[in-house]
Design goal:
With 534 residues, the chain is mostly helical. 56% of the residues lie in helices and 4% in strands. Helix 12 crosses helix 13, helix 13 runs parallel beside helix 16 and helix 14 crosses helix 20.
C-alpha cells in the first residue's frame, strides 16, 4: 500500500518530518540568477539602499584605524559586534527621524523598542546588537552573526572590489575601498563622526544624539558631494576584472543596463512598465541580429529566454503534482493516464499535427495562433483553476512555441553563454531545449509527452537528492514508494526577481529618478551622455 502524509497513522517507522519548502523544485533557476548577476554586478535583491555601501566602508576604515588593544580588535566576533552596533544605531536614527523610509536594516526591532527608549532617554545599543555564543535567537536586532553586512552586503562589496574577507574579518580594500571610505567621511562633520564612533564604543545612543547624527541618514542628499561622485563612478565604470569574458573582454553590462533602464523610464509610452525590461529586451532582440544590440540588451534577452523555459517546465511539473495529489498512481499508470489526457486535450489545438514527428510539428505551429507569451499567461489561469492537465498542456505548448521562436537565435545564445561562462549552469535554455525537445526529434507527440513527463520525474528526484547532499533536509515534492507516486507538496511555477527594484532604488538615491518614477534633470542629462557615447 502507498502511504501519503494524510493517510499514515502514528507510529509509522517510515515517517519523515524533514520535508522542506523550496522555490526551485527543478533546480533550474540558478541559471537565471547567474545571468542577472552578470548584468548587474554589485547589486542584489537585498542590497536596496546605496548609502549602506559608503557607511560600511567608512566603518571598516575606522575599525582598521582603532588601536590593537581595543576590545573590538580581540576577535572576529568582536569586530562583528562593532559593525552590528553601527547598523542598529542607523536603524534607530532612521525610525526616529525618517520613519517612512523603506529597506532599513533592523527597522522592525527599532520600532518595537522606541517606547522603552523614550522612557529611559537612551537606546541600549549593546543589549540590542551584541551577540555571543549564548545569545538567544530573536533577542537582538539581527540574528545573523555578522549582521546585515555579512548576510546581505558583503557579496556586493566584494564584487565591486570595495572590501574583502581575511581570516573571517571584513577589511576594506587598500585602493578602491579606501577611496569610498574617504569620500563618505567628507559627507560627515567631524563632530558627527566622533559622536557616532563614541556611541558604538559606549553601546548607548541618547535621544539628544539623533539631530547631530542625521548626517548618516540613508536618504540624505549627496548628489553633489564626493560621496555621490564616487557612487556615480562606481556604477558607471566597467564591471571589473571579475567580469572578464572567455574572449578576454572586460564588460560594462551594469552601465549598459542602467542606460536601458533610464531609456525605458524616459519613454513617453505610459503603458510601459519599467520592470518589464527583460520582456522588452527579449521582444526586441528576437527581431534583431546580435551585433545590432549592446551586450546587456542581449543578456536581458537571454535571461528572459531562460525564465520562459523555466516557467514552461515548472507549469508541467505543477500540473503533475496537482494530478498526484488527486489520485494514487503507480508510475506506469501515471505516465499512461497523464499522457492520454494531455494528448486528448492537445488534439483540440493541434489537430492532425500530433501525428507528425516533433520537428515537423514545431514547424507547423502557426505563429499567429500558437503565441508563446499567451501560453505563459494561460499558465496562471490553469493554476488558478487548479486544472493540472491544462497546466501540463499549456507548459508543453509554451516550450514548443518558445523553441520555434528562438531556434534562429540559439547559435548567438550559445556564444553569449560560453563567453560569460554561463553555459555550464544547470537549467539554461540551451540545456532545456536539448533535454526536452532536440533529443526527441524522432518521436511523435504522444511519445514526446510521455518522455517529457518521465524526464521531469527523474530530473526532480536527481535534483532533490543532489541538493540534500549529506544533510537531512528533504526537498522532494513526491516520493516513489513501492513503485507508487506519493504526493508531498505542490509548488506553483514562479519567476525569479532580477534586481530591478534595487536598480530603481539606486537611481532614486542618486537623484536620477523621482519618487514618481520620472527622470529628473540630472537623469535626463546622464541619459543623453550615455546615448551620445554609443
Amino acid at each position: 500500500m502507498a502511504y501519503n502524509l494524510e493517510s499514515y497513522k502514528k507510529p509509522f517507522w517510515a515517517k519523515s518530518g524533514n520535508f522542506v519548502r523550496g522555490r526551485d523544485p527543478l533546480g533550474v533557476q540558478n541559471s537565471s540568477i547567474s545571468v542577472y548577476a552578470t548584468l548587474l554586478p554589485g547589486m542584489t535583491n537585498l542590497t536596496l539602499r546605496l548609502r549602506y555601501y559608503g557607511m560600511y566602508l567608512w566603518i571598516l576604515d575606522e575599525y582598521h584605524n582603532i588601536p590593537p588593544e581595543n576590545d573590538f580588535k580581540k576577535s572576529v566576533r568582536a569586530q562583528y559586534n562593532f559593525i552590528r552596533r553601527a547598523e542598529l544605531i542607523s536603524a534607530f536614527l532612521m525610525i526616529n527621524k525618517h520613519p517612512n523610509e523603506l529597506h532599513i536594516i533592523g527597522s522592525d526591532f527599532a520600532k518595537r523598542n522606541i517606547d522603552e527608549a523614550n522612557e529611559k532617554g537612551f537606546y541600549d545599543i549593546a543589549l540590542g546588537a551584541d551577540q555571543d555564543k549564548n545569545t538567544e535567537k530573536g533577542s537582538v536586532y539581527w540574528d545573523y552573526n555578522s549582521g546585515a553586512l555579512g548576510q546581505y552586503y558583503a557579496g556586493s562589496l566584494f564584487a565591486l572590489n570595495l572590501a574583502e574577507s581575511k581570516n573571517g574579518y571584513f577589511e576594506r580594500t587598500e585602493d578602491y575601498g579606501k577611496q569610498l571610505a574617504e569620500s563618505y567621511r567628507k559627507s560627515l562633520s567631524k563632530d558627527t563622526a566622533t559622536l557616532f564612533l563614541k556611541r558604538i564604543n559606549e553601546g548607548k545612543l541618547f535621544l539628544d544624539d539623533l539631530e547631530l547624527l542625521d548626517e548618516i541618514a540613508l536618504n540624505r542628499e549627496y548628489k553633489d558631494t564626493p560621496e555621490g561622485a564616487f557612487y556615480f563612478k562606481m556604477l558607471l565604470s566597467d564591471d571589473g576584472l571579475k567580469s572578464k569574458t572567455a574572449s578576454q573582454k572586460i564588460t560594462s553590462q551594469r552601465k549598459e543596463s542602467i542606460q536601458i533602464f533610464l531609456n525605458l523610464i524616459n519613454n513617453e509610452n505610459e503603458h510601459i512598465n519599467i520592470f518589464e525590461l527583460p520582456l522588452i529586451s527579449y521582444s526586441s532582440c528576437l527581431k534583431k541580429n546580435k551585433d545590432e544590440v549592446n551586450e546587456a540588451s542581449f543578456g536581458w534577452y537571454y535571461y528572459y529566454l531562460n525564465e520562459l523555459a523555466h516557467h514552461s517546465l515548472e507549469a508541467v511539473f505543477w500540473g503533475m503534482l496537482r494530478e498526484m495529489d488527486l489520485k494514487s498512481y503507480s508510475l506506469e499508470q501515471f505516465l499512461y493516464e497523464i499522457t492520454k489526457k494531455v494528448c486528448d486535450k492537445s488534439k483540440i489545438l493541434l489537430g492532425g499535427h500530433t501525428e507528425y514527428l516533433i520537428p515537423e510539428l514545431i514547424s507547423k505551429l502557426d505563429k499567429e495562433k500558437f503565441i508563446t507569451l499567451n501560453y505563459i499567461e494561460s499558465i496562471a489561469d490553469s493554476v488558478k483553476k487548479e486544472d493540472g492537465i491544462d497546466g501540463i498542456t499549456q507548459g508543453i505548448l509554451a516550450l514548443l512555441s518558445l523553441y520555434r521562436d528562438n531556434q534562429h537565435k540559439l547559435h548567438d545564445v550559445s556564444l553569449y553563454a560560453n563567453d560569460h561562462f554561463l553555459n555550464t549552469k544547470y537549467g539554461n535554455a540551451i540545456h532545456i531545449f536539448h533535454t526536452y525537445i532536440e533529443s526527441s526529434k524522432n518521436l511523435r507527440f504522444k511519445d514526446f509527452v510521455r518522455k517529457f513527463i518521465h524526464t521531469l520525474i527523474n530530473e526532480h528526484i536527481a535534483v532533490a537528492y543532489n541538493k540534500m547532499g549529506n544533510g537531512e533536509k528533504n526537498l522532494l515534492k513526491f516520493v516513489l514508494e513501492d513503485n507508487y507516486l506519493v504526493h508531498i507538496e505542490t509548488m506553483r511555477p514562479n519567476f525569479t526577481n532580477p534586481r530591478l527594484r534595487t536598480l530603481l532604488n539606486f537611481t532614486q538615491d542618486l537623484g536620477l529618478v523621482s519618487v514618481e518614477n520620472k527622470l529628473t534633470e540630472s537623469g535626463i542629462e546622464l541619459l543623453n551622455e550615455l546615448n551620445l557615447a554609443e
